[in-house]
Design a protein that fits this description.
alpha+beta, 9 helices, about 270 residues, about 35% helix
Length: about 270
């Protein structure tokens, strides 16, 4: 079933949507979606050149900036999961440059473990949503989400002391600044779209609890399935599935998800 039909059948307040346009969309959210579509575009990394750019972005963020991984001589951050993953980037259209990336780890058999299974299985063993209880072809993990520092800060954030992520105002217009905090949201929506199109039923992610709370504000409601542990900082295991994702996503972001889905479907 197409994503558009799935959204049309999603119940809101006990009534069928009957199409997203029939719902009153919050003006601010609608504006954000409009700005995203004007300045940003999801791109599936479906060839060697694009995947190389994914690994370069990850190296810049995970190795050079955050120090989560050791720097590599070739300036590319890769691991065992990349062999059975799909990747998406978000492109900044005016500069024709990529802002960030995400991967969806899609195991094909029991030998191909999700990162959460390999490194953090102790955090969720007693939970009913333990990924080990499902078939490998039913589960995915959203991981290695990375947004380059110059795209992470709005103008209003620059007085908070985090200078490393300030956007160069001579390069990027004030109008564009409004959409940059939602690059990570766009990456999560793209990952959700990939998951739905690949018919995967269960989605996992290790993330900071404050990020999970931020995602809940737009209707991406992850369920925490284990305690917070020290794994590239303070992170906890979270779960979501396509049904929860589609049922709770706020109307303006459903519109953005449909737009993103249309773009990535042409590339998958």
């Amino acid at each position: 079933m197409s994503l558009l039909k799935r959204f049309a059948q999603t119940k809101v307040g006990g009534k069928l949507m009957g199409g997203m346009i029939a719902n009153k969309v919050d003006q601010e959210v609608e504006s954000i979606a409009t700005h995203f579509e004007r300045f940003l575009e999801p791109v599936i990394a479906n060839n060697d050149e694009l995947r190389r750019r994914v690994f370069e972005i990850r190296h810049e963020v995970y190795c050079e900036e955050l120090g989560f991984e050791e720097p590599k001589p070739d300036k590319m951050e890769k691991d065992y999961c990349d062999a059975f993953s799909e990747f998406c980037m978000v492109k900044h259209l005016p500069s024709n440059s990529f802002t960030g990336c995400v991967r969806v780890v899609c195991p094909r058999d029991k030998e191909e473990l999700l990162p959460i299974q390999k490194y953090c299985s102790h955090t969720y063993q007693e939970h009913a949503l333990n990924p080990d209880k499902f078939e490998p072809t039913e589960i995915v993990e959203i991981s290695r989400l990375a947004v380059l520092s110059k795209f992470r800060r709005r103008k209003s954030d620059k007085f908070q002391g985090a200078a490393t992520g300030v956007i160069n105002e001579e390069t990027y217009s004030e109008q564009e600044l409004r959409c940059f905090p939602f690059i990570s949201v766009g990456l999560y929506l793209a990952a959700g779209g990939i998951t739905i199109e690949r018919s995967r039923k269960h989605v996992y992610v290790m993330m900071e609890p404050r990020l999970a709370r931020s995602m809940a504000l737009i209707g991406i409601k992850f369920e925490q399935i284990g305690p917070t542990v020290n794994y590239h900082g303070q992170r906890a295991p979270y779960y979501i599935n396509p049904k929860i994702f589609l049922a709770n996503l706020k109307p303006g972001f459903k519109a953005l998800e449909v737009s993103i889905q249309k773009a990535i479907l042409k590339q998958l």
